Amino acid sequence: MKGKDLLFVCGGIGLVPVRSAIQYVLDHREDYGRIMILVGTRTSADRLFVDEIEQWSKEKNMTLLETVDHRDDNWSGIEGVITSLMPLVKVNPSETVAIICGPPIMYKFVIVELQKMKMPDENIYLSLERRMKCGVGKCGHCQINKIYVCQEGPVFPFSEISDIEEAI
Question: In order of start, what are the domains of the chain with their CATH numbers?
Fold first, then answer.
């Protein structure tokens, strides 16, 4: 991913596993192009790492957008599902890598939006961590066809799993 623009798409608690990748990229800022972070939660009360998000939003050459599914009195920002943020970022599809983590239903819609942007499948990375249980390949809970997510992932390029219906 070095030398590329990065688009992080984090829904709900999907920000938790992606947070360390964001921190790494910020610590090695000179190795990456533009950074775009899209964060969506159900309500403003569900927001995570609020102070860090505030700091990230002040970084140079970075776009950070947040949305909540349901507005309340504590939220004056954008309301809507995370895909409502995607038209607000401009990407160079061949020079951008998308990292997606969130609820499984979100993946289908985010992938559709990325494909509309002409993002190549090999530039889209998904976390299938939600399927893991034991984490060492013994229980088989994470198995998708012949793939053991805990041993071979949990992060996969979409190009490797797009034809596996059970993956998404």
Answer: 5-127 (3.40.50.80)
